[in-house]
Specification:
It is built from three helices and 53 strands. By secondary structure, the protein is mainly β. It folds into four domains: 2-141 and 244-324, Single-stranded right-handed beta-helix, Pectin lyase-like (Pectate Lyase C-like); 145-239; 331-413, Thrombin, subunit H (Beta Barrel), CATH 2.40.10; 418-598, no CATH class. It has a 22-stranded parallel beta sheet that branches. Strands 6, 8, 20, 22, 24, 27, 36, 39, 40, 43, 46, 49 and 52 form a 13-stranded mixed beta sheet that branches. A seven-stranded antiparallel beta sheet has the order 16-15-19-10-11-18-17. The protein starts with a helix and ends in a 7-residue tail after the last strand.
Length: 605
């Protein structure tokens, strides 16, 4: 791929240039490893010194370094999928803040950076040619509590707190807390270590019971929670779902490389890249430290890309233990709320957690989208873009607006859509999906392992109704991956791969997605169907190996292994299917003749 080769060449040039870059050592600014003292003020001073250099390497001392919000950079930031719609402060504490930097490398020297209180591990803002490497981040007190179920009966249930969890009981109800924060149990995920399964559950079974703090690390609930299906040895991870932070933030930046970076706990969303260009993640891990004994590393997503462009490359990465999706790539649909004259629009951010940032720039190309069927009916070019509130943007277009444009339609910025490569990576221990990919440019998902994702291993969506995450795909290759027992929490809806735009309104001969190839993969299905596809033109499922085993009832498959809705040009060729039960193919709003198979008749068509 041209973009991939170009990116590798840029990395080579950067490595060569570092030989002449000035090195700034944090030891010289008073950062002392294993001191357990606040190094935030010293890091701020070191970065101030580094900003004046043409090329610079900022080197950490190794060992353990501790950071507190006191003395750290503080900025008001509005971040995609992360900003709650209320009047509370949006100011974030930034452990490492690179704002307006060029040609800088942060060399962690294998340092473990321990954060105290709610902090963003690093923020790269308005910067270019930035590399962060060889560094790990963790929380002293994760904002998620973990409890192991020690015993349960019809009379009581006893839970044991993880050593990193602090809790108390007030008015017979469990509370958990950390450094500068406190919370009540709400969102709950269960990890079954014996079966290595992670699934969403509810705290409601405990809410109606009285809690007693039996010891510093055990709490007893007086009553029966058997209705929830918990088992002895289960680990319950619980949190407040309020999103007020992220693990790291890359905004309005270009040529960013993260290499050999580990985040062992993330509060809020994960590493969010927003309106940035050419981003490489190489050997980036979001997973608990082995010695910590924790099961969860991410409050929500791990890698999240919103409105980016250029090449996004995720290579040899690993996620394990997230409460939401390991990776999500999308744009944002904004809704037209008003039309002024013949070339001016007022647009509005619609989802309550996504707003407050620039989403259009002069010269950008846009698509006009019918929200009822997600079809693009026209395009335009932005002359000027101005935010008039945290929710609203005024666009002045270069040309007259389309005659059929109307209030309520949506607009997508198609200039800020990336090419994506996800390769050689491992995704496990999540109760949700694996990858969510929605971009019109070339996508390659190759040589990855998806292990027991609770829902779809891969979801290709597009919607103008709830999340407003855009857009259509036009060139996707899913090749050489292993899908191991994915989709087990969704039953008959748990398709391993789901192509599911959020609409049921299909114009004749109109398709939202196109040109999707699924080839040379291995599927080990445990009670889950294989593929759902809606509104796709040119879909290929070739040379795959699919082994199916029922989850519970050995002779029953309640739904078809393949379900297609309003698709055309479908090919299913030279696959190996083992253990299929019941109906293999179900079609809706299309003819079976649209599905070409080799050998013929394998689906009864």
């Amino acid at each position: 791929m041209k973009l991939k080769s170009c990116c590798l060449f840029l990395l080579f040039l950067l490595a060569c240039n570092l030989a002449g870059a000035k090195e700034i050592n944090l030891l010289d600014f008073g950062v002392t490893p294993w001191s357990y003292e606040n190094a935030s003020p010293a890091i701020v001073k070191a970065l101030e010194a580094a900003k004046d250099e043409k090329e610079v390497v900022l080197k950490f001392p190794g060992g353990r370094v501790d950071l507190w919000p006191e003395g750290a950079v503080k900025k008001e930031l509005y971040i995609s999928n992360t900003t709650e719609d209320d009047t509370l402060s949006k100011v974030k504490n930034l452990a490492i803040c690179l704002d307006g930097f060029s040609n800088i490398t942060i060399d962690g020297n294998n340092t473990l950076v321990v954060l105290h209180g709610k902090m963003v591990s690093f923020a790269i803002l308005n910067s270019q040619n930035v590399t962060i490497r060889n560094i790990c981040f963790d929380y002293e007190r994760p904002t998620m509590a973990e409890f192991k179920l020690l015993e349960t009966s019809s009379n009581q249930t006893k839970l044991e707190a993880h050593p990193d969890t602090r809790f108390d009981v007030h008015n017979n109800q469990l509370l958990f807390y950390g450094e500068g924060w406190g919370a009540k149990p709400l969102h709950t995920v269960v990890t079954n270590p014996e079966k290595d399964l992670v699934y969403r559950t509810s705290w409601k079974a405990f809410e109606r019971l009285q809690a007693t703090k039996e010891s510093a690390n055990t709490v007893v609930f007086n009553g029966d929670v058997s209705e929830a299906g918990f088992q002895k040895g289960d680990v319950l991870s619980i949190r407040d779902p309020y999103r007020d932070n992220c693990g790291a933030f890359i905004d309005l930046s270009k040529n960013i490389v993260l290499e050999n970076v580990s985040l062992h706990y993330i509060h809020g969303m994960g590493i969010i890249s927003q309106f940035s260009e050419d981003i490489t993640f190489k050997k980036v891990a979001v997973a608990p430290r082995k010695e910590s004994g924790r099961t969860i590393a991410a409050f929500a997503d791990c890698f999240h890309f919103s409105g980016c462009k250029g090449l996004i490359e995720v290579d040899s990465c690993r996620t394990s233990g997230s409460h939401d999706d390991p990776m999500n790539v999308h744009g944002t649909h904004l809704k037209i709320t008003r039309v002024e004259g013949d070339n001016k629009l007022i647009l509005r951010f619609m989802h309550h957690q996504t707003y407050g940032f620039k989403a259009f720039f002069a010269g950008d190309s846009v698509a006009f989208v019918n929200p009822e069927n997600l079809m693009i009916y026209n395009s335009g070019k932005v002359k000027t873009a101005q935010m008039i509130s945290k929710r609203e943007i005024v666009l002045e277009m270069e040309e007259h607006l389309p005659e059929d444009l109307k209030k309520g339609d949506c607009v997508e910025n198609v200039s800020w859509t990336p090419e994506v490569i996800v390769c050689n990576s491992h995704f496990e221990r999540t109760s949700t999906r694996g990858l969510l990919i929605s971009t019109r440019r070339k996508v390659l998902i190759e040589n990855n392992t998806f292990y027991r994702t609770g829902m779809h291993a891969i979801l290709i969506a597009n919607d103008c109704n709830y999340w407003y995450e855009s857009g259509p795909v036009g060139d996707v290759t899913i090749r050489g991956n292993r899908f191991l027992q994915c989709g087990f929490t969704q039953g008959e809806k748990g398709y391993v791969i789901s192509i599911q735009p959020e609409t049921h309104n299909f114009p004749k001969n109109g398709y939202i997605h196109s040109n999707i190839q699924i080839e040379d993969n291995v599927f080990e299905c445990l009670g889950s169907p294989v593929l759902f596809a809606r509104s796709v033109r040119n879909l290929q499922f070739n040379n795959n190996k699919v082994d199916y085993k029922p989850l519970s009832k050995p002779d029953e498959m309640p739904v078809a292994h393949f379900k297609l809705e309003h698709c055309s040009g479908v090919k299913v060729e030279n696959n190996r299917f083992n253990g299929f039960l019941g109906q293999a193919l179900d079609v809706l709003n299309m003819k079976k003749s649209e599905v070409k198979t080799v050998p013929k008749g394998i689906f009864g068509n």
